[in-house]
From TrEMBL:
Family according to the record: Belongs to the WD repeat WDR12/YTM1 family.
GO biological process, one term: maturation of LSU-rRNA from tricistronic rRNA transcript (SSU-rRNA, 5.8S rRNA, LSU-rRNA)
InterPro entries recorded: NLE, WD40/YVTN_repeat-like_dom_sf, WD40_PAC1, WD40_repeat_CS, WD40_repeat_dom_sf, WD40_rpt, WDR12/Ytm1
PANTHER family: RIBOSOME BIOGENESIS PROTEIN WDR12 (PTHR19855:SF11), WD40 REPEAT PROTEIN 12, 37 (PTHR19855)
Alphabetically ordered keywords of this record: Nucleus, Repeat, Ribosome biogenesis, rRNA processing, WD repeat
Compartments reported by the entry: Nucleus, Nucleolus; Nucleus, Nucleoplasm
NLE domain segment(s): 7-69
Presence of keyword Nucleus: yes
CDD domains: WD40 (cd00200)
Function: Component of the NOP7 complex, which is required for maturation of the 25S and 5.8S ribosomal RNAs and formation of the 60S ribosome.
The name this protein goes by in its record: Ribosome biogenesis protein YTM1
Quaternary structure note: Component of the NOP7 complex, composed of ERB1, NOP7 and YTM1. Within the NOP7 complex ERB1 appears to interact directly with NOP7 and YTM1. The NOP7 complex also associates with the 66S pre-ribosome.
Residue spans of the WD repeats: 136-176, 184-225, 338-373
Length: 421
């Protein structure tokens, strides 16, 4: 090894707990990621060793250092800065839960429950063994979006133009049932997405009519007080009553379908929406006004926040994921573009346990895992285990308990687990 050609390198990382001294050292050009792993673990004196991945100029290193330099037409006289990150192992398939129709939306909660919405109009609650805890015919049309309000309450929206808030009830024999607390009306077409913020007790909705709604989901004080004061029979009658609510505010947000709306992950007074009119819009939820409008080149179908980077990820008909920074004034140019899907990107979710990991679902039948520091391709692609070809993925969610949850045209809710995040 002493006779091998060497190059001077500096190892860097953004994670303080695995940081090594940034003094340049000489390593052989023949070292590949496996060899670099041994070097870093030796410097860290880690036992058991940690699996690392390596980036050079923002690109994952998948060859020896010599091969990389040759491909980039660089010489070994340079000092190479190599960033190392914890490696993400390939996801493992866990299970699939079969539905009677297309699975349009999925959402997990930290109490080991998964909520799914289906084109048969039914919302289902599943446990980790694939058993239905409870189900309800929640709408007169396909369910388009679901979200948790808290552990015992959830919200659904539908093509039937309504939004409903549901409360779970546990009876003495441990059977769980659903009771509709509110029905919310105001959209003129399908309610495509909903998002909830518990701090403000507000729900945002986006519709195929282009409208954006803001709703109050707090259970009225007079209902709570009266339930405490009346007899049991009257209390049961009251609990079966469905209250119809109108929006606090409804605004024409987009010139065509508003595909998705979300709250800002750090500021509950700010919301973001995307639409098939190619635009990303920022909303002041106090004044109900549009404060920023960015027009892209393609229809947009999904959006999510990446809190650690203060970025918005947007899925488009261009088959790409666009990363925008809402803090800067560039009106249309994305900070970064993630390429790899071959059809519309219709669902996105960021990872709570890794600041740089994003997952996406597409009509190309794939769920992809991305490290946003690496723009030249996804880390992994997850196929549908149903075996059906060309089956669209409609919805995805990242769960700290279950892993990656997805629903699609194959009528399955699929779970894939990543154990090292």
């Amino acid at each position: 090894m002493e006779n091998q050609t060497k190059i001077r390198v500096i190892f860097i990382t953004k994670e303080k707990e695995i940081e090594v001294e940034n003094t340049p050292i000489f390593v052989p050009l023949s070292l590949n990621p496996y060899g670099l792993n041994e070097v870093i673990n030796h410097l860290l004196e880690k036992d058991p060793p940690i699996n690392f991945a390596f980036l050079v100029d923002g690109e994952f290193l998948q060859e020896s250092l010599g091969e990389y330099l040759a491909r980039k037409q660089q010489t070994c006289e340079t000092t190479l800065s190599i960033e190392y990150i914890r490696s993400i192992l390939a996801p493992k398939y866990v299970s699939s839960f079969l539905h009677s129709d297309w699975v349009s939306c999925v959402k997990s909660v930290d109490s080991k429950k998964i909520l799914s919405g289906c084109y048969d109009g039914i919302s289902r609650l599943w446990n980790e063994d694939g058993e239905i805890i409870t189900e309800t015919l929640s709408h007169d049309g396909p369910v388009k979006s679901v979200c948790w309000v808290e552990n015992e309450r959830f919200a659904t929206s539908s093509m039937d133009q309504t939004i409903k808030i549901w409360r779970l009830k546990k009876k003495k024999n441990t059977i769980i049932t659903c009771h509709c607390v509110f029905e919310m009306k105001g959209h003129a077409m399908s309610v495509e997405s909903i998002a909830v913020n518990l701090q403000t007790n507000r729900l945002l909705s986006s519709g195929a009519d282009g409208n954006i709604g803001i709703w109050d989901i707090e259970e009225n004080d007079w209902v709570i007080d009266e339930e405490k004061s009346i007899k049991k029979r009257k209390r049961n009658e009251l609990s079966d009553k469905i209250i119809t609510k109108k929006p606090i505010y409804m605004i024409q947000g987009h010139s065509s379908s508003c595909s998705e709306i979300i709250f800002d992950s750090k500021d509950c007074t700010v919301g973001y929406s995307v639409g098939t009119d190619h635009s990303i819009k920022t909303w002041d939820l106090i004044t109900f006004s549009n404060v920023d409008n960015r027009v892209t080149q393609h229809a947009l179908f999904s959006i999510c926040c990446i809190p650690s980077m203060s970025l918005l990820a947007c899925g488009s008909s261009s088959q790409h994921i666009l990363l925008h920074d809402p803090r800067i004034s560039l009106k249309s140019t994305p900070v970064q573009t993630l390429k790899g899907h071959t059809n519309f990107v219709v669902s996105l979710s960021s990872c709570d346990r890794n600041n740089y990991v994003l997952i996406s679902g597409s009509y190309d039948s794939l769920v992809k895992i991305w490290d946003i520091r690496v723009p030249n391709g996804s880390l992994y692609s997850i196929k549908r285990q149903s075996g059906k070809k060309n089956t669209k993925v409609f919805s995805i969610d990242w769960s700290n308990i279950f892993g990656i949850i997805s629903g699609g045209e194959d009528r399955c809710l699929q779970i894939d687990q990543i154990n090292d995040l």
